[in-house]
Structures are given as C-alpha cells and as structure tokens.
Amino acid sequence: MGLKTIANNKNLNDLGEADIIQFIQEKGPSRLPSHLKKGIGDDCAVLKTDGDRPLLVTTDTLVEGIHFTNQTLSPKALGWKALAVNVSDISAMGGTPHTAFLSLGIKPETNVSFIESFMAGFQAISDKTGIVLAGGDTVESPSFLVITVTLLGDCLPEHVVYRCGAREGDDLWVTGTLGNAAAGLFLLQNKQVAQSSEFKSQIRAHQKPMPPLEVGKALGESGLVHAMIDISDGIAKDLAHICEQSGVGAVLQAAEIPISPRVMKLAAEMGKNPLDWALHGGEDYELLFAASPADRQKIISLTAKVSNIPATRIGKAIRQQGIWLETAKGRDRLGPGGYFHFSRSPAETR
Prior knowledge:
The chain has 350 residues and is of the alpha+beta class. The protein folds into 2 domains: 32-158, CATH 3.30.1330.10; 161-333, Phosphoribosyl-aminoimidazole Synthetase, Chain A, domain 2 (Alpha-Beta Complex), CATH 3.90.650. It has 12 helices and 13 strands. It has a 7-stranded mixed sheet. Helix 5 (112-129) links the parallel strand 4 and strand 5. The chain starts with a helix and ends in a 17-residue tail after the last strand.
C-alpha cells in the first residue's frame, strides 16, 4: 500500500521526514518534463538550459529553535551558515554556485542591528565563493525566525555527480575530519564546559562551516566519482541515501573514520564516544563519495592537491543491503542516527 492511500489517516510525526518527502514526490508528476534532468531526491535539482551548462538549484530552510538558537549562533555566524549549507549542496553535485535568493520570516520587534550582522555574515561567505544575492522575500513572523535560501549553480553535464551511481565494490571516501561540528555544538550547549582556545576550531566548524567547494568541483571534473553527497545529517544517515539510490549496501571501518585529535581529547574528557559524533553528529558539510578501487591513488593525489589534505577511505559498497560498521569486535548493523525532522523523539537542537 502506497503512501497516497495511508497518509490521510496519519499525522506528520507518524510519517517522519523521509515518508513526507516521498508523499510529496508521489503527488508530483509521474514523469519528469524534458527540461528537468533531476528532480526530488538529490542535493540539487538539475535543469537543462539553452547553453552547455545545466542549472543546479538547491533550497534550505533554517528555523529558530530547530536548526539554531541565539545561544549557539551569533547573527553574523547565522548569516554565514544560512548560505554555507546551500553551498555544500552545490559542492556535492560537483558544481559552482553563483546566484542566491534570501527569504526571511522575522519578528517585527527584531533590532535592525541583527539584520546588519546577519547580512555581514551572509556577504562574507558570498564574497569568498563568488555568489551574488539576486533577490528574495521578507515577511513578518509572529514568534520565531525562519530563513530560506535558494542557491543556483552550474556545471558541465558530464561533470554532475549524483547520489545514485555507487557500485558494488566501490571504495567509500570522505573529505576532511568528522565530528567537529557536533563537538562544537556540545561545547556551545554546555556552558559549564570550559571553552578553551584549544577547541576553537570545533566551535568554528559548527558556526562557520566552509564546504570543500573546490574539492567537489575537482572530483566532478575528474570523472572518477560514481556517487557523492554532502555530510549534513550525519554520515550514517547520508550514506543511506547513496545506498538506497544506488541499490547497494555499505560496510564502514570504524578505525578508518577520520576524527581530529582535539575531538578525541574532548570526547575523552567529557565521557563521550567520538565515533558517535563522527557518524551521527552531522553538519560537518564534508563530502562522502564512492569511487573505483582502481582509482585510489588518483583520488588521494587529486584531493591532496586541491585541499592539501587527502580524502580518507572509510569503507566499501557491498551487495548486501544495509549499512554495517566493522570494529575490532566484529561487524554490526549501523542505525541511521543523525537528525530527523518530525520525529517523536527529536534530537537535540542543531
């Protein structure tokens, strides 16, 4: 029985985020129109153009109390992050961002200085990435701030990377180190924890993430990558999207998950498992991708050349469905973790 027939008897908490998206998709056209190369189900929609570069389109909404609070993000950091999360989507498709649209639902009693600081942060990352703000909307919100950014980018058609191309036997790779943003959020939410300068990079990872845009573009241009996604909801949950759309499973090597020494130290001091932050924390906005084992050295050389830090091979795609974590104790099924909207037991505010 499809969602079309059962959803009317349920509320959104019963369905959850994934089923809501599926329900919306089922209500749309059964076949994509000729101008739409890719619709719902990837980091960006891909639209054909009259030129030689298809248009990449992504939209993200941030809601006060769900994605941020004034205790965890300053107005300037919020402006930066509101655009950064969209830049990450363009990066995951191998594209280059160029035009943004910003919409705000904002409380009327908000001080003008908030907008000034917010736009300073938004403009800072715009300048860094070559993005131009071209329009948007502003409306009154009665009780909380809502931010929606739509970002356009482009890419040569042969360089676009989708989530659906992973193959059995592919290596799985990530850029950077994982768990930094989750560790930073932990520090911000636990004021009793001393926020020494030693952990400033973790707080910055949460407040001012900088997606590896040039790495994503280089990977797309290389033709080496079969599937790619950005790590926004936690690697366990985001890898599931690649697996589902590619018809494969995956096994991750716990010992190979890249975690910075500072995150390891903080976790040890606080009695936390750093692997939980790395696998489920989310908001690292690094790249997770699949590529042939025959191209390992090329992947290492390419990513090291572009970012000075080579990507890390963390596992492989397998025929068996599901995601598995292999540790010294054996192999266990890995739950999705991460953040789930419309969950009966929501994760901590992000």
